[in-house]
Amino acid sequence: MQNTVKQNALKRLKSAKGHLDHVIKQIEQEKYCIDILQQSLAVQSALRAVDNVILKGHLEEHVAHAMHGKDKGKSIQEIVDVFEKARK
């Protein structure tokens, strides 16, 4: 994993963790449901952003090279598998 991808992913994960901690506190304090849902959506959005950062880094670092070699089919299948899992 490229260092810039790693740092960006960690930054976004820490942000998601902060949002999640806030959701937990809101539930413990029995806050308004809509406020909790909005915070939960922020967590989910932050995690999707992490996925995008990691996927882009993977495509740039690994898949681009594999497309020119014998691992082309394997690389394509890995990406297809990830997208299938994401849609469940």
Describe the structure.
This protein has 88 residues and is mainly alpha-helical. It has a single domain, classed as Up-down Bundle (Methane Monooxygenase Hydroxylase, Chain G, domain 1). It has helices spanning 3-28, 33-66, 72-86. Helix 1 (3-28) runs antiparallel to helix 2. The mean pLDDT is 87. Keywords: Cytoplasm, Metal-binding. Pfam families: Trns_repr_metal. Homodimer.
Overall shape: elongated
Count of discrete structural domains: 1
CATH class reads: Mainly Alpha
Radius of gyration over alpha carbons?
17 Å
Q: Roughly how many Å apart are the termini?
A: 26 Å
Strand and helix order: HHH
Annotation field: number of helices: 3
The description of the largest β-sheet is: none
Per CATH, the superfamily is Metal-sensitive repressor, helix protomer
From the coordinates shown, what is the CATH architecture? Up-down Bundle
Concise structural overview:
With 88 residues, the chain is mainly α. The chain is 85% helix and 0% strand. This is Copper-sensing transcriptional repressor CsoR.
Overview features:
Metal_Tscrpt_repr; metal ion binding; Methane Monooxygenase Hydroxylase, Chain G, domain 1; elongated; 3 helices; 85% helix; Copper-sensing transcriptional repressor CsoR; mainly alpha; DNA binding; 88 residues
Topology:
Elements (H helix, E strand, L loop, with lengths): L2 H26 L4 H34 L5 H15 L2
Helix pairs in contact: 1-2
Organism: Candidatus Curtissbacteria bacterium RIFCSPLOWO2_01_FULL_37_9
GO molecular function: DNA binding; metal ion binding
GO cellular component, one term: cytoplasm
